[in-house]
Amino acid sequence: MGQNLRVGLIGLGTMGRHHARVIRATEGLDLVAVADPGGDRFGVAVGLPVLPDVDALISAGIDAALVAVPTVYHEDVALALADAGVHTMVEKPIAHSVEAGERVRDAFAERGLLGTVGYVERCNPALRALRERLDADELGRVYQVLTRRQGPFPARISDVGVVKDLATHDVDLTAWIAGAPYVSISAQVAHRSGRQHEDMVVASGLLANGVIVSHVINWLTPFKERVTVVTGEKGAFVADTLTGDLTFHANGTVESTWEQVANVRGVSEGDVIRYAIAKREPLALEAERFRDAVLAGPGASTEVVSMDEGVHTLRVVEAVLAAAAENRTVAL
């Protein structure tokens, strides 16, 4: 394609307004249509008519679309776009249920269209640098991935609890960083704020390659924390996705002269390195990856999150809720 991709955006809320800004700033993309049945409270349209629904968006003649409506509407909107032959990125999670996610995934696959899910954490500079260093074997064998995603309640969320809204990020990034899907998960949730859905979760699981994982996620901590710790045979990486910083804590090589301790195969504290990394806005990189994947065509090797991965993440997230409700470990 010589000219820019004509992009439509549906959902003009908290995420939609950021997507609109980024699409307009991305070379090769033109934002030509926006839609939201609830109107345009953030003034995103800037000269474009605010269309009422996905059908009107499609009628504007678009090559690609970004879906940022509430999760409960993801399936209907995405299926309409697939039917119309429009390459699409759906904000995470892919849909409100695994079955809905599978229908969305299959619709895009059957039509040979690009379908991707917007897990923007994969574009975070700290996690990208972490993944590159793991790929370069700087940690050796990975033993454990631990994530903490805590903070106050966001007013924008009404249709899901903390598991489907936030834990979905941690599940996706953990499987991606460790390079393996989940095989089992157990969890506890709590309802402490008087809302319909859970607002706290602690989950632990096992990946197919033997890596053990742990997630602490809530909406009831009065400070924001977004931390991923990967521990392996040479030490531990700590990625702070709020600041975009990556730190490496090396295992020390201090010899112990205390015989009882020396016989135990443990580690000691070694050098600590904080890497200087370029810090681009993750959403801007996500938009470029979407553009490149659309232009590359179906089947090309790209860095977007596949809808199949989106379905796996949703399957794990639903297993977290089932494990908590039934107080058992769920096999995947």
Automatic annotation (TrEMBL):
Taxonomy, superkingdom: Bacteria
Domain GFO/IDH/MocA-like oxidoreductase: start-end pairs: 128-237
InterPro entries in the cross-refs: Gfo/Idh/MocA-like_OxRdtase_N, Gfo/Idh/MocA_Oxidoreductases, GFO_IDH_MocA-like_dom, NAD(P)-bd_dom_sf
Molecular function per GO: nucleotide binding
Annotated Pfam families: GFO_IDH_MocA, GFO_IDH_MocA_C3
All residue ranges annotated as the Gfo/Idh/MocA-like oxidoreductase N-terminal domain in the record: 5-119
Annotated protein name in UniProt: Gfo/Idh/MocA family oxidoreductase
Source organism of this protein record: Actinomyces respiraculi
